[in-house]
Design brief:
The complex is a heterodimer of chains A (272) and B (316).
Chain A lengths: L2 H12 L6 H19 L2 H24 L10 H16 L5 H10 L1 H6 L5 H30 L5 H29 L2 H17 L12 H9 L1 H13 L6 H26 L4
Helix pairs in contact in A: 2-7, 3-4, 3-7, 4-7, 4-8, 4-11, 5-8, 7-8, 7-12, 8-9, 8-11, 8-12, 11-12
Chain B lengths: L1 E12 L2 E13 L4 E5 L6 H8 L7 E6 L2 E2 L4 H7 E4 L11 H11 L4 H14 L15 H13 L5 E5 L7 H18 L2 E6 L2 H7 L2 E6 L2 E6 L1 H9 L1 E7 L2 H9 L5 E6 L2 E6 L2 H14 L4 E7 L3 H9 L10
Parallel strand pairs in B: 3-8, 3-9, 6-7, 7-8
Antiparallel strand pairs in B: 1-2, 1-4, 4-5, 9-10, 11-13, 11-14, 12-13
Classes of the chains: A mainly alpha (272), B alpha/beta (316).
């Protein structure tokens, strides 16, 4: 080894690990937010109670309906559990905006906005926390459903959990954007109610849209979440050739990227 | 350290345009404590928020810590410590969690941030509180934590927005000591806003009085007070009428008026001019019972400049 090589070798030892400031700020924010959440883990459980109740008290109702004409292939569980997972993805994430309104009120958001930290990082660290919590919930819910009698191939279940994760990214971001924009719980609550009911009813989460009359199905086509639910159901059947799986994946990816973009812009805006 | 020209900010609220700041020029040198004094709604906080990159000015230019406010906001943020009125801590977080995270957001490594947090806690009388949940802190402790957060990255320039609002007098005096130490020990530059006259008077090297979005006067506290009204010297004398005649002839004595049991004379500088006046009375054989020198308060200054008392100014 000549002198120059040796010098270069020393340099590589000295070199800082290559870091993207954006992701570094996201990780700092993620760790901070996660620690705050874990101090009151009761919330993680509370969010799970609703889907568990659906699983125990609503899914049995579907068993006779699964035999009616127009019900999608697969048993009641294979149709209902993917919908329930999507519902968890939507409703488990769309209320995180309330948290950021509290942070605005403490002045914490403003304090972080005066630091040189990347705005995307400040947002994404929060979204990452929400998404990871959501993924754990989704995995738990799937396991519990298996105990109830669900039969699902592993690959399909993993793809569905991935779809749920993308939904989480999307809705958590949009909820943060709405919170930053409205700055008030009193304004955010009615907005979320207004959005969530049609999203739920027009997505086929509770009952598959294939049971619906034509006109209702047409309206549902405009709802991106209905495609996401169809995709998740195809994944649960391991039906990878089904175009609705591809459409569902694309729809959830678009929702995730779009949500992040909108929320990052809102975070960058001066008065947010 | 700060140079601003014509800073202006208007807000549009339901079609109504509000001019919060109307063309403020401002210059702050390194190692100075400069106070923006004015009633609520005068535009102090808006001015500070513009300089802190939280609001984009509608018009005007500024250089903060060598960085252009519009072209290099991240450069400004890197060098500035900003402590807002509400502080900005999460009540359920622990003291060191906030401090270390803040340091990391300024690019410090975790271990550097930890060490710095310990040092700042010692400096600001929070030494034992690193592991405490913030909602259990007293008001004074929480305010000192806010300031510690603003100092994590060791900035040369610090903005304090109403640093002592809501604190009891003792805690306030203690906070002032810490703020002065920032200037004296680290040659720090501080721009603070306040609507407390006592605070501006006790703490600031220079004051800019702001009213309705404009700087109406600026100078050292003493200069401002002297410029407006001079000092008031009050003598208690036995023969008020003769004393009045006598003092009216003295140089530097303006406006000699009879008050309860004595005379009140307006002079430029009370400390140097009171004694010659007293000697004159003594030489004339008049008996002087007591002597009192009063400096005009900043409220008098504000009253003279705006026709309103700072204390009565309506909050907005």
């Amino acid at each position: 080894m000549n002198e120059l090589d040796y010098y270069c070798y020393l340099r590589t030892l000295d070199a800082e690990p290559i870091e993207v400031p954006m992701l570094r700020d996201a990780m700092i924010t993620f760790r901070y937010q996660m620690r705050l959440l874990l101090r009151e883990p009761v919330w993680i459980v509370i969010v799970m109670i609703q889907p568990l109740m659906y699983l125990a008290l609503f899914a049995p109702l579907l068993e006779p309906i699964a035999k009616t004409q127009g019900f999608p292939p697969g048993g009641a569980w294979q149709v209902f559990v993917p919908g329930l997972l999507i519902q968890l993805g939507i409703f488990g994430s769309m209320f995180v905006g309330f948290g950021i309104i509290a942070e605005i009120r403490f002045g914490a958001i403003e304090r972080m906005r005066v630091t040189p930290a990347s705005r995307f990082g400040l947002l994404f660290g929060r979204v990452l926390r929400d998404t990871i919590v959501l993924l754990i919930q989704a995995a738990l819910l799937t396991l519990i459903a298996v105990a109830f009698g669900l039969r699902v191939p592993l690959a399909g279940a993993l793809i569905t959990v991935g779809i749920v994760g993308m939904l989480g990214v999307s809705l958590a971001s949009l909820s943060y954007a709405a919170g930053l924009w409205l700055k008030s719980e009193d304004a955010l609550a009615p907005l979320l109610n207004m959005v969530s009911v049609p999203v739920l009813l027009l997505s086929g989460i509770l009952l598959p849209m294939s049971l619906a009359p034509r006109w209702l199905q047409r309206i549902a086509l405009v709802n991106p979440f209905s495609h996401v639910v169809d995709g998740a159901r195809a994944a649960f059947l391991n039906d990878f050739g089904n175009s609705s799986l591809a459409i569902g994946l694309i729809a959830s990816a678009i929702l995730a990227v779009g949500g992040l973009a909108i929320a990052t812009r809102t975070f960058q805006r001066e008065s947010a | 350290m700060i140079e601003a020209r014509g800073l202006t900010r208007t807000f549009k609220n339901r079609g109504v345009t509000v001019e919060a700041v109307r063309g403020i020029d401002l210059e702050v040198n390194a190692g100075e404590i400069v106070g923006l004094l004015g009633p609520n709604g005068a535009g102090k906080t808006t001015t500070q928020r513009m300089l802190a990159t939280l609001l984009v000015p509608t018009a005007g230019e500024a250089t903060v810590a060598g960085c252009d406010l519009r072209r290099d906001p991240v450069g400004v943020r890197r060098q500035l410590g900003y402590v807002s009125q509400t502080g900005g801590t999460n009540p359920s977080a622990k003291v060191d969690e906030e401090l270390v995270t803040q340091g990391q957001l300024y690019g410090m490594s975790r271990s550097d941030a930890r060490a710095r947090a310990v040092k700042l806690r010692e400096m600001l009388d929070l030494a034992e509180l690193g592991d405490r949940v913030i909602k259990t802190l007293s008001g004074g402790q929480r305010r000192r934590l806010d300031i510690a957060l603003g100092l994590m990255h060791d900035p040369r320039l610090v903005f304090l927005d109403e640093p002592s609002t809501g604190l009891d007098p003792q805690t306030r005096a203690n906070l002032w000591t810490h703020i002065r130490a920032l200037r004296d020990q680290r040659n720090g530059t501080i721009l603070l806003t306040t609507h407390y006259l006592e605070e501006a008077d006790a703490l600031c090297d220079r004051i800019m009085i702001i009213d309705a979005g404009k700087v109406v006067a600026s100078g050292t506290p003493a200069e401002l007070k002297r410029r407006i009204s001079g000092d008031l010297v009050t003598f208690e004398v036995d023969d008020v009428v003769r004393a009045q005649q006598l003092l009216r002839g003295q140089s530097g004595a303006r406006d000699v008026t009879v008050v309860e049991r004595g005379l009140r004379i307006t002079v430029d500088r009370g400390e140097t001019q009171a004694l010659p006046l007293m000697r004159a009375l003594d030489d004339a054989g008049l008996k002087v019972g007591s002597l009192h020198i009063a400096h005009p308060s900043l409220d008098d200054v504000f009253l003279t400049l705006t026709g309103r008392s700072l204390r009565d100014a309506p909050p907005s």
